[in-house]
């Protein structure tokens, strides 16, 4: 296995992109990444595309060759592969791209993530979101994805004394960060009172505890680390790429306030990279519902089990934090185009590690962590990215 | 959802039919072909036997749903809970016959056979378990007890309906 670097990144704006189609946004992100990597499409060996639900969202399956085609690559007959893992589809696609380059089979690959959510009504998007949980034993009985995370939130409050205000702080943090991100779906700031006073979705979670339905795409170009300096002055090495899985249904977990797949993936990732949680300066953590980053911080080892609520409320994960989490605004503020999220997290980390994040820059960041989750944690993906010396 | 897709699960959804690993004794719902608890899964192959849950248990966590799952729009706000049954498995289901304010972690409940949802005016009606509070352990919740439903050849009924 050889070392793999991120050579180029690209991303569209996230939000309600009513004037733009799935294929347009997918190609925009891919071409940006290719230009950023100073590569031409003739150099590419393969394309991996993270996407969760194009079949139900835009009535189109078989989308990887579609994107390759409109990117002008059809004549080269490149392998183009769609990767699906619920909300973790983008990170899972990145893992596949990483393996493809690390194995030596391909030198340069594009990993994209794209999702078009606003071509269906919100109620349909809610149902499609729920399809990442266990349809037969959760959804049929009235559960939605926010309902399942509502169960987790209530249990965390019961076991650890986490408060409604602490949950609200998570959304306040996301919007504070998102206000500095020109690509973000939402750039307004929020107050704790606004979050708590918003209409309920699945108690204790309200509408401002939930990430929005967004359109968007992101892409990265991967290549071997040993030739990375031909393409960029600041290569970013993928120090670890680990996927963990767990039971499909929440009801089958021994303890619902921890995602075992994340604990395992994070522990393997830190071991492989020979680093610890305390070495990370910047992290993009799954935050589709306000309880998610609190569970994530505990599972990833950034805080002691049960302490994420009060620790988060102190502001220790804000700008200049240890680490700073979700400088992009996370899915709550930057937006949640499912398949694009895991790739966009890495786009943000690469910009941070290169020192190109402008207003959002975490000073002196050299090690970043990305954490993406599908459903209630049946799939969890952890990437560690390090600025190469 | 097609009729067959729902009908084939009726032994579980109507009757709480689970399975038990005779190698380690762990009970599962819904039934599993292989036991995840046995260190070597091969130990459990062909040793999983049908096991009937009693339907009694307690609330582990709950949420009050305001943005409904498809087919549940007329029921909002409704309570969805995780219920840990006395035999071990945890089930996801609605808690009914009580106001949302009356639900709490630790509440004793019992499964009761109810209509879950219907697919529009002409579509399939889905039935299955919900949970109702048990104040007095000897008092059955409203609606037919799961045991009576169990006696009927439910799957055949659905097929001819």
Description:
The complex is a heterodimer of chains A (389) and B (161). Chain A has 389 residues and is α/β, with parallel strands linked by helices. Chain A folds into 2 domains: 4-121 and 214-236, 3-Layer(aba) Sandwich (Peroxisomal Thiolase, Chain A, domain 1); 133-211 and 238-387, Peroxisomal Thiolase, Chain A, domain 1 (3-Layer(aba) Sandwich), CATH 3.40.47.10. Chain A contains 13 helices and 12 strands. Chain A has helices at 22-36, 54-58, 63-70, 89-102, 122-130, 145-160, 164-178, 192-197, 260-273, 291-300, 308-313, 330-333, 338-354, and strands spanning 4-11, 46-50, 80-83, 109-115, 200-202, 205-206, 216-224, 236-245, 282-285, 324-325, 367-374, 379-387. In chain A, the strands form 2 sheets. A 10-stranded mixed β-sheet of chain A has the order 3-2-4-7-1-8-12-11-9-10, sandwiched between helices. In chain A, strand 11 and strand 12 form a beta hairpin. In chain A, helix 1 (22-36) packs across helix 3 and helix 4 (89-102) crosses helix 13 (338-354). The two termini of chain A are 20 Å apart. The model of chain A has no long low-confidence stretch (mean pLDDT 97). Chain B is mainly beta and 161 residues long. Chain B contains 4 helices and 8 strands, in the order H-H-E-E-E-E-E-E-E-E-H-H. Chain B has helices at residues 3-7, 10-13, 146-151, 154-160; strands spanning 17-21, 27-28, 48-52, 56-65, 78-85, 90-95, 108-118, 125-133. Chain B has a 5-stranded antiparallel β-sheet. A 3-stranded antiparallel β-sheet of chain B has the order 2-1-3. In chain B, strand 1 (17-21) and strand 2 (27-28) form a beta hairpin. The A-B interface holds A 123, 126-127, 130, 136-144, 146-147, 150-155, 158, 199-205, 249-252, 256 and B 9, 13, 30, 60-70, 72, 75, 77-78, 80-82, 89-94, 100, 105, 116-117, 126, 128-130.
